C-alpha cells in the first residue's frame, strides 16, 4: 500500500498519522521544523503548544471533558501523553509543554509505520494526503491551497500570553486558590481593588500595540480573532467591566487577606510541573514588549516580575469549510485530499487533535475498503464535524467544543449540571453504538 502523506506535526497531524499507522496504513509525516519555524513556534518537537499549556476542563459533564473521553475511546496519542505530563491546574488538564512535546515526538518517531521527514512542503503532493498545517500554514503552501480551493480562504488572529518566573513574584500580594475551592489551590491569584483595577484598565486600553499588516486588519478594533483567544487589550476596549466578566472575574474567590471577594482577579497558572514559571491566564496580547512590562507590572504581585516570554500575536488561517469539506473533513472537489486541525474551523487544541483522529479514521477506512464511519451528531466530535460541513458559509467562524452544538435532549432538564451529564452520557452511548455498528458492517 502506498504511503499516505500527512503534512504538519501539530496535534491534528500527529493524531491523523497515529490513527492511520495503527490501522496498518504506512504514513509519511512531514513537518518543516526545525529547518523553518513559524512566527509563533520556538521548540523543535512535535505537538508544540503555543497559546497556552491548558487543554481545558476534564469533567465528563463539560464539553471539553466529553471531547477528551471520545478521543481516548478512539485511540488518541495525545491524551495519554497529557496524563503523563500534567501539571496542577484545578479542574483543567494542563501540561508541561516541553515534556508533552518530547513524549509525543518519541511515540511518533518510534512507530514502525510512520516515516517522519523534516521538510517544508510547498505544493500539495500526489496521492492521498491529510493537510494539517494549522493556522500558521507557510506562505508557499497557503498559496498552493488557495489555488486549489479558490478565494474561500480566510485570515484571522491568534495571540499567546506572557510567562513570568515564580521567584520574581511578590507572594505577599498573591494568594493560592482555585475558583469555588475546586481541586487543589492550583492557581496564583492577584487580587485588585477598584482603584487598582481602574488604573490598570486605563493604562491597558491606551498602551501601544505592535503594528499589523494591512491583510491582518479587520473590524473597528483591527482584530479578527477567536473569541477564546481575544487579546486582553482588545477585550478591555469593549468596556470598563469587560475583563471583570472575562478572565479577571472575581467570582468563586475570597482574598484571605481581606476575607472578601476582590473587585477583580488576575490568575496565574503553572507553566511546568516544578512551578518555576507561570502564565497569565487569559492575557493573550499584541502589546509591544515594553508596554507589556510596563502595564502588566501594575498587576498586584507582578511589580518586579521577570518575563520569560512576552505575549505575541500572529497570523492564523482557516478555510470557509462549509463550502469545501464534507463531514469527514474530505475536500469535496478532490476526494484524495483531507484537512484537519484549526484550518478547518475547529477551535482549540483538543478540537484540532480530535479532527485529526476523525480525518485519519475516515481516510484509513476508505483505503481499507471499509464502510465509512459517521460519528453521530450526538457526539462532540460528530457535532464539530457537522458544524464544519453545514455551518453558514456567510461569515463562517471557527467553533470550539461546547454543549450548545449538540442536539437537544428529548426531555427538558432544568438543572444545568444534570443536563450536561445527560448529554455526555448520551454522547458516549452514541459513540459506542456507532463503533459497534461499524465493526459489524
Question: What's a quick, concise take on this entry?
Answer:
With 441 residues, this protein is an alpha/beta fold. The chain has helices at residues 11-22, 63-73, 78-84, 97-110, 139-149, 194-206, 232-236, 289-296, 349-367, 380-390, 416-440; strands at 4-7, 27-31, 54-57, 86-87, 92-95, 114-118, 129-131, 153-160, 163-165, 175-176, 187-192, 264-270, 277-280, 307-309, 312-319, 337-339. The strands form 4 sheets. It has a 6-stranded antiparallel β-sheet.
Radius of gyration: 22 Å
Q: How would you sum up the global shape?
A: globular
The largest beta-sheet arranges its strands as: 10-11-12-13-9-14
The helix/strand series, from N terminus to C terminus, equals: EHEEHHEEHEEHEEEEHHEEHEEEHHH
Mean pLDDT: 90
Total strands: the figure is 16
Structural class: alpha/beta
Low-pLDDT segments: 218-223
Helical stretch tally: 11
Beta fraction: 15-25%
Sheet with the most strands?
6 strands, antiparallel
* Secondary structure: helix percent: 25-40%
Structural descriptors:
single chain, 441 residues, alpha/beta, six-stranded antiparallel sheet, five-stranded parallel sheet, 16 strands
Topology of helices and strands:
Elements: E1 4-7, H1 11-22, E2 27-31, E3 54-57, H2 63-73, H3 78-84, E4 86-87, E5 92-95, H4 97-110, E6 114-118, E7 129-131, H5 139-149, E8 153-160, E9 163-165, E10 175-176, E11 187-192, H6 194-206, H7 232-236, E12 264-270, E13 277-280, H8 289-296, E14 307-309, E15 312-319, E16 337-339, H9 349-367, H10 380-390, H11 416-440
Parallel strand pairs: 1-2, 1-7, 2-6, 7-16
Antiparallel strand pairs: 3-5, 4-5, 8-15, 9-13, 9-14, 10-11, 11-12, 12-13
Amino acid at each position: 500500500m502506498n504511503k499516505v502523506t500527512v503534512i504538519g506535526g501539530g496535534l491534528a497531524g500527529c493524531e491523523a498519522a497515529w490513527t492511520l499507522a495503527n490501522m496498518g496504513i504506512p504514513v509519511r509525516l512531514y513537518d518543516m521544523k526545525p529547518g523553518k519555524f513559524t512566527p509563533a513556534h520556538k521548540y523543535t518537537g512535535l505537538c508544540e503548544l503555543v497559546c497556552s499549556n491548558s487543554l481545558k476542563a476534564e469533567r465528563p459533564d463539560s464539553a471539553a471533558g466529553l471531547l477528551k473521553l471520545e478521543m481516548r475511546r478512539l485511540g488518541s496519542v495525545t491524551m495519554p501523553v497529557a496524563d503523563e505530563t500534567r501539571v496542577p491546574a484545578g479542574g483543567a488538564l494542563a501540561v508541561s509543554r516541553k515534556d508533552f512535546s518530547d513524549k509525543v515526538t518519541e511515540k511518533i518517531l518510534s512507530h514502525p509505520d510512520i516515516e517522519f521527514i523534516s521538510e517544508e512542503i510547498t505544493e500539495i503532493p500526489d496521492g492521498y494526503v491529510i493537510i494539517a498545517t494549522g493556522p500558521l500554514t507557510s506562505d508557499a503552501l497557503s498559496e498552493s491551497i488557495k489555488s486549489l480551493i479558490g478565494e474561500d480562504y480566510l485570515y484571522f488572529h491568534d495571540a499567546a500570553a506572557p510567562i513570568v518566573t515564580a521567584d520574581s513574584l511578590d507572594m505577599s500580594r498573591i494568594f493560592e486558590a482555585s475558583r469555588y475551592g475546586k481541586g487543589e489551590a492550583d492557581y496564583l491569584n492577584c487580587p485588585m481593588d477598584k482603584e487598582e483595577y481602574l488604573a490598570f484598565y486605563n493604562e491597558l486600553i491606551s498602551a501601544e500595540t505592535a503594528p499589523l499588516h494591512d491583510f491582518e486588519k479587520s473590524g473597528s478594533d483591527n482584530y479578527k480573532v477567536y473569541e477564546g483567544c481575544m487579546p486582553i487589550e482588545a477585550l478591555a476596549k469593549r468596556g470598563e467591566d469587560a475583563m471583570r466578566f472575562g478572565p479577571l472575574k472575581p467570582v468563586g474567590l475570597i482574598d484571605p487577606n481581606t476575607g472578601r471577594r476582590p473587585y477583580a482577579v488576575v490568575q496565574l497558572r503553572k507553566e511546568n510541573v516544578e512551578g518555576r514559571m507561570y502564565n497569565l491566564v487569559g492575557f493573550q496580547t499584541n502589546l509591544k514588549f515594553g508596554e507589556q512590562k510596563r502595564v502588566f507590572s501594575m498587576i498586584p504581585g507582578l511589580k518586579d516580575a521577570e518575563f520569560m516570554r512576552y505575549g505575541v500575536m500572529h497570523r492564523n488561517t482557516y478555510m470557509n469549510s462549509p463550502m469545501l469539506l464534507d463531514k469527514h473533513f474530505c475536500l469535496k472537489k478532490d476526494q484524495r485530499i483531507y484537512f484537519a486541525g484549526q484550518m478547518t474551523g475547529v477551535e482549540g487544541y483538543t478540537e484540532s487533535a480530535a479532527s485529526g483522529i476523525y480525518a485519519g479514521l475516515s481516510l484509513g477506512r476508505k483505503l481499507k475498503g471499509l464502510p465509512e464511519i459517521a460519528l453521530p451528531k450526538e457526539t462532540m466530535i460528530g457535532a464539530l464535524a457537522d458544524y464544519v460541513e453545514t455551518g453558514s458559509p456567510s461569515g463562517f467562524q471557527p467553533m470550539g467544543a461546547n454543549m450548545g452544538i449538540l442536539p437537544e435532549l428529548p426531555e427538558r432538564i432544568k438543572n444545568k449540571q444534570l443536563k450536561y451529564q445527560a448529554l455526555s452520557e448520551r454522547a458516549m452511548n452514541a459513540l459506542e453504538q456507532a463503533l459497534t455498528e461499524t465493526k459489524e458492517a
